[in-house]
Design a protein that fits this description.
238 residues; alpha/beta; Rossmann fold; 6-stranded mixed sheet; 10 helices
Length: 238
Amino acid sequence: MAEPLLRLDSARAGYGPNDVLRGISLEVGQTEIVTLLGGNGAGKTTTLGVLSGILPLRGGRLVWDGTEVGGHPAAERIRRGLVLCPEGRRIFPRLSVEENLVAGTWLRDPKRTPAKMDEQFARFPVLRDRRCQLGGTLSGGEQQMLAIARSLMSEPRLLMLDEPSLGLAPLIVEKIFSILVEINASGIPVLLVEQNARQALRIAHRAYVLATGEIVREGTGAELLASDEVRRAYLGEE
């Protein structure tokens, strides 16, 4: 079996004196979509903060492509291809669509920017049509597409996303998940934190369930989607 691209071993992290993550371990393979599920306060966003370098590890190891990177700063992780698309989109509302995309290339070779931008405009035609429009004037779905496109401008080897469907209409949610499948099929593994558990599990190769900072269940997306316990806790089914 191939070595995972990313491996988190016995990770502890938190805020102030309290640990939010209490020894979690997970991995993402070279070609996978992996979903991280859990209720509010379970530690999902904290996990992404640890992986992206926003939050320091207090214990455990983070191994990226065979190298331990738990002490590396966020910018170095982006250079290595570990890229986060954050919750809430966090685009630059007073910059144009094109300027937002250029902002995603700040650690990359500027000579590649035009080709990368063309690639994103091919993937997201609506952004091409709005390339001179200010980011803050886009619809919620368009802003989410811009956030994903900006992350892809950073040339990720792993794309991490925090709640990409939050607050979006059902048809736009379907589109976003279809885009994530396409991105994965292009060769980029995906680590997805998502409140829409049903949709997330449908596209996931594997999934983990977090509760109070611990992994309490793991399996394939299909296995967890069929689990009565998961269906009751996260899909609202009796």
